[in-house]
């Protein structure tokens, strides 16, 4: 029995290493349950992906680590926007809008996002504003 548990753990770790190489869209839509659950007192490096809570479909909600750190209770992914960026997509495949942290993840002209029940198109490069506030046009239809 111990050998089976060890092999299962090794397989899970191999899948996690492989999953680190896929796109956010593939991760969210095809294999969210492969990623490790976020936990306290854990060292994370930029680029890691963790699961915390559930999305609207009841699937694990994934977050990309934006800054390396050792986690603590009040730095959960859903509370610490400077440390984690939510990964997600609407049913039509449009990325769900998340607040950019800076130039490295700002939206570019033509990027489309889903927010507050509507699709929005960025009208400018390096757009860090929320759709409906500035620099966005609602996409009809």
Protein architecture, described:
The chain has about 140 residues and is of the alpha+beta class. Helices cover about 20% and strands about 25% of the residues. The chain contains two helices and nine strands; from the N terminus they run H-H-E-E-E-E-E-E-E-E-E. The strands form three sheets. A four-stranded mixed sheet has the order 6-7-8-9, with no helix packed on it. Strands 2-3-5 form a three-stranded antiparallel sheet. A two-stranded antiparallel sheet has the order 1-4. The longest helix has 18 residues, at about 1-20. The radius of gyration is 17 Å and the shape is elongated.
Give the gist of this structure.
Helix content is about 20%, strand content about 25%. It is built from 2 helices and 9 strands.
How far is the first residue's CA from the last residue's CA?
56 Å
Content of β-strand: 15-25%
Task: Report mean pLDDT, rounded to a whole number.
Answer: 84
Bin the helical content.
10-25%
Rg over CA atoms, rounded to whole Å, is 17 Å
Order of helices and strands: HHEEEEEEEEE
Please provide the count of β strands.
9
The order of strands across the largest sheet is 6-7-8-9
Main pleated-sheet profile: 4 strands, mixed
Number of separate helices = 2
Which segments are poorly predicted (pLDDT under 50) over 5 or more consecutive residues? none
- What is the 3D form? elongated
- Label the structural class: alpha+beta
